[in-house]
Amino acid sequence: SPKHHSQRARKKNKNCRRHSLYVDFSDVGWNDWIVAPPGYQAFYCHGDCPFPLADHLNSTNHAIVQTLVNSVNSSIPKACCVPTELSAISMLYLDEYDKVVLKNYQEMVVEGCGCR
Amino acid sequence: GASHASLIPETGKKKVAEIQGHAGGRRSGQSHELLRDFEATLLQMFGLRRRPQPSKSAVIPDYMRDLYRLQSGEEEEEQIHSTGLEYPERPASRANTVRSFHHEEHLENIPGTSENSAFRFLFNLSSIPENEVISSAELRLFREQVDQGPDWERGFHRINIYEVMKPPAEVVPGHLITRLLDTRLVHHNVTRWETFDVSPAVLRWTREKQPNYGLAIEVTHLHQTRTHQGQHVRISRSLPQGSGNWAQLRPLLVTFGHDGRGHALTRRRRAKR
């Protein structure tokens, strides 16, 4: 039924997933020395890791065990929703000596989230 | 302090103060401390000792912008090719940092070379961090097409790039002690950038900590015509045709290095529909 469907959709939305997080360098006053990009989509992970853990949540064996234990003993927390895959971005900026630098920074963007 | 207050805009700072006020009225100095620590952490993450404060005269070379666009997949290769830029696949594949340097403009016309144009260039590379290992370096020179008469054969130039091995003060005037790094024969009927491999010199200065006496650039004319002397290769600000775009066309030293953190520069190609 439509009601059942909406409940399922709401429940699904609460699960661990990637959310938008745009970091604007002009908002933090860094656009005078960062030439490019003006900002970037960093994303973040948020949501529940409910029992049983779904396959797409990239869970580790440890996360599965912890979730199982949580289901019978709530004093043990559920697994955490964290980035499981990250990617790099390149930045073009002026350094402390007015020299222009192009540098690759690792693990700046969340590509995938999971329960760990 | 005032130099760190820019990290979070005024509205954000007010919010921080409000939150802290609700949390039990902590001292306002703590919010500044928090911001300072916040910025220091981010700068450390970016490998910077302090917040860069660029001068108004700072110039961003077009080459670095194009490299960024190609590297980040912002621009298609075909679009960049129209500017004559080729992505430096090999040097970039071993580096996670590309730095560009303009010479110090202590331009010295080497005496005793009246027939040809020879210059010594000093590039201050002291801003390269100790932990960054340079794998290669290139010197980029711009040359402009020179309109010439029907005598095509007279349009050839040879560009020689040397490392200066001894300070000029220690040698007989007009006789620099140099070693050849790269050479190219060019014809002055095209406008383009030429890239020369100067890795051996830059590696000596950075890895081996040998003194940096600069590079010598020599442009020789195969046929000793004085008609186009000093007009073709942009190694000097004061050229007969003016210096309006000197900031973008002046020689550029580019280093490729890796600080041991993370992967090399990998090109992100935009997926085609």
Automatic annotation (TrEMBL), chain A:
Cellular component GO terms held in the UniProt record: extracellular space
Residue ranges constituting the TGF-beta family profile domain according to the UniProt record: 1-116
Cell location: Secreted
Chief place where the protein resides: secreted
Pfam families per record: TGF_beta
GO molecular function: BMP receptor binding; co-receptor binding; cytokine activity; growth factor activity
Keywords: Chondrogenesis, Cleavage on pair of basic residues, Developmental protein, Differentiation, Disulfide bond, Glycoprotein, Growth factor, Osteogenesis, Secreted
SMART domains: TGFB
Transmembrane segments: none
Stored SUPFAM superfamilies: Cystine-knot cytokines
UniProt-listed GO biological process terms: cartilage development; cellular response to BMP stimulus; heart induction; heart morphogenesis; lung vasculature development; muscle tissue development; myeloid leukocyte differentiation; negative regulation of cell-cell adhesion
UniProt family annotation: Belongs to the TGF-beta family.
PANTHER family reported in the protein's UniProt record: BONE MORPHOGENETIC PROTEIN 4, TGF-BETA FAMILY
Name listed for the protein in its UniProt record: Bone morphogenetic protein 4
Organism: Homo sapiens (Human)
